[in-house]
């Protein structure tokens, strides 16, 4: 399902040249009627861009979509970078409050981008899908969780220090509920909006569904800034993107993401399941 | 604009570009006079003739080369730097004692080189997504590197900026490649 994303922010100010202004109602090569939304004439298959200006226009729109997704990525990267600089300058490890602030800061660009692309995002949120997909999402989260803990345990065995998520909060007196909010709810909502919503959607405009899925999964993995986590994050990104394609909705992905992260912190809280 | 002068359709009066055979507003055939003018064959036109096909093909190759080239350049650069660091590690190790540079750094740099060779291989078939990932990865890596070690940013900053520019151009070339491909296949 290709969700045509609204023109990205930097094109909104200009009177968006209606594609139908230059898109013909009849093919200039064979004279048969054509849908101006189609790129090709269905009768003689001649490409839509028969003039230099149309090619330029297409290119401009493509670059706009691409800029939109890349700028969101770099905005999020900027937030992560700012957080790292802050911690480095402060000379101490993050506190619970700083984690909350960082988390909120991370959400800001996502909300901003969603406001500019409100219609397609709402479409992705309101899209109806079979309830079975939610069950599938939770089941898949079990698989991604196993993959993630397997990878982490392998690294621990190799001598890499294990990441702890809960101690930051519990040390400052915040209970498990806060952990759920910070580690399960927030990423599930905002990372899905950002990567499967905005980025995958924008890339689809010119990359095609499969390539947009792969690229958005890669960007998702890279943004977590952890080479060692990259493999299982990549797999998770692919599954999440696939869910969005299959259901046309962001909700199953959010369910998987929540469930996966929830399993991780429960595991940490309980001190390790017996499975691994 | 590159097209020869636009002409008016004798049936409905709409303006059509000189290279149209049929009116785009009413679908009726345009008089042959409208088509007999000198035809400017650019790569944007439908390749109706083999000469035009060749032009599109050449333009495609140009874009493809640009995209691939940028990724290959980064791959080679990373490899060279990685080997350089590796040599420095060996040198400092043989000097005995003070290992200022950890071999892990060399491994990471070389590893990134391997990744970019992979992106280059991907770009040979499909330049656009590879170029996008290439740019994203490059900026991410160097942003993190700069924060961890601010002096690293200054080292070779001009080269890094040039590489970013090359990767952006690679993406633009990739997009043009993507849009041109159907033209070649349609004929």
Main attributes of the structure:
heterodimer; A: mainly alpha; 11 helices; elongated; B: 187 residues; 2 domains; 6 helices
Task: Tell me roughly what share of residues is in helical segments of chain B.
Answer: 55-70%
Give the rounded overall mean pLDDT of chain A: 83
| Percent range for β-strand residues of chain A | under 5%
**Radius of gyration of chain B, in angstroms, nearest whole number:** 25 Å
Order of strands across the main sheet of chain B: 1-2
> In sequence order, what are the helices and strands of chain A, one letter per element?
HHHHHHHHHHH
Helix content of chain A: 55-70%
Helix and strand element order of chain B: EEHHHHHH
- Distance between termini of chain B? 24 Å
- What is the total number of structural domains of chain B? 2
Poorly predicted ranges of chain A (pLDDT <50, ≥5 residues)? Answer: 6-21
- Residue-averaged pLDDT of chain B, rounded? 79
- Which term fits the overall shape of chain B? elongated
Largest sheet of chain A: none
What form of chain A results from the Cα inertia axes?
A: elongated
Low-confidence stretches of chain B: 33-45
Blueprint (SSEs and pairs):
The complex is a heterodimer of chains A (276) and B (187).
Chain A: H1 9-12, H2 19-22, H3 52-90, H4 96-116, H5 118-126, H6 132-157, H7 167-171, H8 176-207, H9 209-223, H10 230-247, H11 251-270
Chain B: E1 7-8, E2 15-16, H1 32-35, H2 50-94, H3 103-125, H4 127-148, H5 150-154, H6 157-186
Antiparallel strand pairs in B: 1-2
Helix pairs in contact in B: 2-3, 2-4, 2-6, 3-4, 4-6
Task: Describe the model.
The complex is a heterodimer of chains A (276) and B (187). Chain A has 276 residues and is mostly helical. Chain A is built from eleven helices and no strands. Helices cover 70% and strands 0% of the residues of chain A. In chain A, α3 (52-90) runs antiparallel to α8 and α10 (230-247) packs antiparallel against α11. The longest helix of chain A is centred in the first third of the chain and has 39 residues, at 52-90. With 187 residues, chain B is mainly alpha-helical. Chain B folds into two domains: 1-41, no CATH class; 64-180, no CATH class. A two-stranded antiparallel sheet of chain B has the order 1-2. The model of chain B is unreliable at 33-45 (pLDDT under 50). The interface between A and B is large, with 47 and 44 residues.
């Amino acid at each position: 399902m290709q969700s045509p994303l609204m023109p990205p922010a930097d094109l909104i100010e200009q009177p968006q040249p209606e594609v139908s202004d230059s898109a013909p109602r009849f093919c200039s090569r064979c004279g048969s009627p054509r849908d101006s939304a189609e790129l090709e004439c269905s009768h003689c298959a001649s490409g839509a861009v028969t003039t230099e200006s149309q090619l330029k226009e297409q290119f401009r729109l493509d670059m706009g979509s691409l800029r939109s997704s890349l700028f969101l990525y770099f905005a999020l990267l900027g937030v992560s970078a700012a957080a790292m600089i802050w911690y480095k300058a402060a000379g101490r490890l993050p506190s619970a409050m700083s984690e909350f602030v960082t988390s909120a800061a991370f959400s800001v660009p996502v909300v901003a981008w969603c406001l500019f692309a409100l219609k397609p995002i709402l479409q992705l949120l309101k899209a109806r899908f079979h309830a079975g997909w939610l069950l599938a999402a939770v089941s898949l989260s079990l698989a991604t969780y196993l993959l993630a803990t397997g990878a982490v345990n392998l690294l621990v065995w190799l001598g890499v220090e294990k990441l702890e998520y809960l101690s930051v909060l519990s040390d400052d007196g915040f209970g498990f509920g806060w952990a759920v909010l910070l580690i399960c709810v927030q990423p599930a909502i905002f990372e899905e909006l950002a990567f499967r919503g905005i980025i995958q959607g924008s890339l689809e405009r010119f990359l095609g569904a499969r390539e947009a899925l792969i690229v958005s999964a890669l960007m998702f993995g890279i943004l977590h800034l952890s080479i060692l986590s990259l493999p299982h994050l990549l797999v998770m990104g692919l599954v999440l993107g696939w869910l969005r394609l299959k259901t046309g909705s962001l909700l199953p992905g959010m369910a998987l993401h929540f469930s996966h992260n929830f399993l991780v912190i429960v595991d940490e809280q309980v001190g390790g399941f017996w499975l691994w | 604009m590159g097209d020869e002068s636009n002409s008016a359709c004798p049936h409905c009066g709409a303006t059509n570009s000189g290279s149209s055979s049929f009116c785009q507003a009413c679908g009726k055939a345009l008089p042959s006079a409208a088509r007999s003018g000198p035809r400017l064959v650019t790569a944007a036109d439908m390749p109706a003739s083999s000469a035009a096909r060749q032009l599109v093909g050449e333009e495609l190759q140009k874009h493809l080369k640009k995209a691939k080239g940028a990724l290959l350049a980064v791959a080679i650069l990373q490899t060279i730097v990685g080997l350089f660091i590796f040599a420095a590690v060996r040198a400092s190790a043989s000097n005995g004692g003070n290992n200022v540079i950890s071999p892990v750094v060399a491994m990471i740099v070389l590893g990134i080189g391997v990744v970019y060779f992979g992106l280059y291989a991907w770009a040979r078939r499909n330049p656009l997504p590879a170029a996008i990932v290439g740019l994203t990865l490059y900026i991410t890596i160097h942003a993190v590197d700069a924060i961890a070690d601010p002096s690293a940013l200054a080292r070779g900053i001009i080269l890094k900026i040039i590489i970013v520019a090359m990767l952006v151009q690679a993406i633009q070339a990739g997009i043009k490649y993507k849009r041109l491909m159907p033209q070649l296949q349609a004929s």
